Amino acid sequence: MTRIAIVLAAGQGKRMKSKLYKVLHPVCGKPMVSHVLDAVKKASCERAVVIVGHGAEAVQAHLGDAAEYALQAEQLGTGHAVLQAKEQLGEVDGVAVVVCGDTPLVSAETLEALIALHEREGAAATIMTAELESPTGYGRLVRGANGEVLRIVEQKDCTAEEAAIREINTGTYCFDNRKLFAALAQVTNENAQGEYYLTDVIGILQRQGERISAYKTADPAEAIGVNDRVALAEAERLMRRRIAVKHQTNGVTIIDPEHTYIEADVTIGADTIVYPGTVLRGNTSIGENCVIGPSSDLTDTKIGDGSTVRQSVADQAVVGARCSVGPFAYLRPGTKLADQVKVGDFVELKNAVVGEGSKIPHLSYVGDATVGSNVNIGCGAITANYDGYNKSQTVIGDNAFIGSNANLIAPVTIGKGAYVVAGSTITQDVGDNDLAIARERQVNKEGYAEKIRARARAKKERDQ
Ligand code: UD1
Ligand code: CA
Fold it and tell me: Which of 173, 206, 223 represents a domain boundary (last residue)?
């Protein structure tokens, strides 16, 4: 049977008190509406129509071709929102999955189970419900004497008796598509909020004698609807835990999941150990047998197998296999390390390609540079790549040795196997296997230290 999805995302989200539209607020680094859309796609919905209104352009710009869109120009309620997809979907024979854009923890597995129950029971509507300790704010599921679903009543329309019901509507449903649109036409806005409620469709179908099913999720996390920042933090916490469990199941050791922040799309290979205080963002991908952290912050970065990244920050960097990064290294965009590279403490790299086996162990800046293989860059050596207007390139050949505290003034090329003497300021190219020395020759003055001290002592006495 055809499966389609309708995602409600037109509300402003007043309770967020934000300039950012509610469904674009990220949970574990990904906007809530993207989580929801990913879930319905994974649950094999062939089409997904996102209802947009507030921030329509921003939402569409973010989701792009991943969805179709229907505009709800005025936000008159969730029932009115679904009705906006009538032109696109009204004639489809099949199952419509309706999800709110602010329930980021709804999972594809749960949607599959919901759809399976709906089809098995031949229901006109199936509601995903949850039993909550504190149901405040959610619509309540009203059941009859035999446990059959009668209707959903919104918090603001509840009697005291209904308010005590702890089984809530998660805002995720399956409908027979044609019956959904037929029932929507009968929904009115005579309620406490003066809105056209999607939830009223349940009572309408029930009164017509249609079968209504309910699928109660065992995991109340799936139910969380984010209306304010308190719920946003709760969703973040629950999603973080879920992501950690996914990686743990795949063979990753996370020493302290409560203090490790892994965004939704990060991938990590088996036998990697992630230490606390680590933040892995965006499209970061980490190989097998790595040691990441403590306290590393990686964004859109790729780490090869067997590498170590301790107390370091990386953004759009590529690190090869068996590399050692940190402690306290900063890999900026365009950093590409081949295999077995060492980048040590207080080293910053930007737009720098470093060949296999090279070492930059301490206190260096290497920017806009191509460094060959087996190069050693001594402590404090830097590339001077910027003259205040232009960025210039430094090229260092294979097997070169750059002495400590050397300044390589770009543009400059250091040949293969060349040797730059410590403390040199290099402004001219150095040929292959040449030695470059660019510093004052040393002068030793015998016994002069005592002479200087005597002079200083005398001055101090005079001044007292
Ligand atoms: C809704 C349900 C409630 C359920 C809860 C679960 C209704 C009437 N109530 O309440 O039973 O327990 O979700 O989280 O459906 N939206 C539109 N257009 C509108 C209004 C809302 O697109 O005109 C979108 C919002 O962007 C949001 C979603 O629909 O993503 C839900 O709207 P919201 O106002 O958050 O509904 P709740 O009060 O949470
Ligand atoms: Ca909500």
Answer: 223
For residue 31 and ligand 1, the question of a CB distance below 6 A is answered with no
- List Cα–Cα distances, 8 to 22, 33, 76, 81, 280, in angstroms: 11, 9, 12, 7, 30
If asked whether residues 133 and 14 sit together in one domain, one would say yes
User: From the alpha carbon of 81, which atom of ligand 1 is closest?
Assistant: 18
Q: Where residue 33 sits, what CATH number does that domain have?
A: 3.90.550.10
Same domain? For 98 and 208 the reply is yes
Cβ atoms within 10 Å, residue 422? 16
* Domain boundaries, position 312: 252-436
- 26 vs 458: CA distance, rounded Å: 69
158 lines ligand 1 (CB under 6 A): no
In a domain? residue 461: no
What's the pLDDT tens digit per position in 170-214? 999 999 999 999 999 999 999 999 999 999 999 999 999 999 999
Give the model's pLDDT for residue 1: 82
Whether 237 is in a domain gets the answer no
> Whose CA is closest to 157, among 119, 204, 195?
195
Tokens 């065992």: give the residue: 218
Q: How many domains does the chain have?
A: 2
pTM of the model: 0.90
Same domain, 152 and 17: yes
Per residue in 72-114, pLDDT tens?
999 999 999 999 999 999 999 999 999 999 999 999 999 999 9
- The answer to whether residue 220 scores a pLDDT higher than 90 is no
Is the shortest distance between the CB of 227 and ligand 1 below 6 Å? yes
